[in-house]
Design brief:
There is one protein chain. The chain is an alpha+beta fold. The protein folds into two domains: 1-30; 33-134, no CATH class. It has one helix at residues 2-30, and strands at residues 33-36, 39-44, 53-62, 65-68, 71-76, 80-84, 87-91, 95-98, 102-110, 130-134. A five-stranded mixed barrel has the order 3-4-5-10-9. The chain has a three-stranded antiparallel β-sheet with strand order 6-7-8, with no helix packed on it. The N and C termini lie far apart (61 Å).
Amino acid sequence: MARMFAARRRAGTVLLTAVAAVSLASCRDSANFVMADGTYVLLAQPGDGGDAAEISGTVTLIGSCLGIDDAIAIWPAETTIVDADPFTIQVPDVGEVSVGDTVDGAGGGFSPDDLPDGVVVPDDCDASSVVTFRGE
């Protein structure tokens, strides 16, 4: 009887662990940002078009958002934060990028009223100009 209970408990633990892992992965996939030390890094999947313009400039902080020059940047969905001091991200097809670095890639510009699906710019970021960025 005790063995049967232990086997059921182990199976329940494995099931709970699997459900928790799927839930955490889903939260990461559905989020439109990652955040560290009060700084937002906005994320989105590449669009269906309109993202082939040359995007280059200096990585900056615009309010609480990571940007390029004077525009809030929307980085590729797989971008991760590497360090908060200096603020550094890992961008697919680009590598590590820190505030103050120059980046060159492709992307597109958006008005604050016409952002990519699912992207919301936090209130404490000046969204007068928004660009998507991806490595080439």
